[in-house]
Amino acid sequence: MAGSLISLLITLLLVGVIYWAFTQLIGLIPLPAPIAQVVNVILVVIIALIIIMPSRAARAGTAFYAALALAGRFSRYLEKEKPPVKAG
């Protein structure tokens, strides 16, 4: 019983951090409000499916974490300073 509660707590904590990270990344993209709301709903549905179906989510989770890492690399690429352009 205690092991189940601890694993549930860890799972919810991990899912909360993933949800927070995605909402932070989505906030960086200028989207109209209705589209941002649709993206948020899709994110909640995906997270709910990961919690409800853990055996299938393990396979999808690997791709999920890979996509998250790729998004982080892409955002770091966008943040790099570009050299100033000399007027000709």
Protein described:
- The mean pLDDT is 74.
- The protein has three helices and no strands.
- It has 88 residues and is mainly alpha-helical.
- The chain has helices spanning 2-28, 33-52, 54-79.
- Helix content is 83%, strand content 0%.
List the helices and strands and how they pair.
Elements: H1 2-28, H2 33-52, H3 54-79
Describe the structure concisely for a colleague:
With 88 residues, the chain is mainly α. It has helices at 2-28, 33-52, 54-79. It has one domain.
**Rg result:** 18 Å
The averaged pLDDT comes out at: 74
DSSP strand content = under 5%
Largest sheet: none
What best-fitting shape do the alpha-carbon axes yield? elongated
Contiguous runs where pLDDT drops below 50 for at least 5 residues: none
Distance between the termini: 72 Å
Which terms would index this structure?
mainly alpha, 0% strand, 3 helices, 83% helix
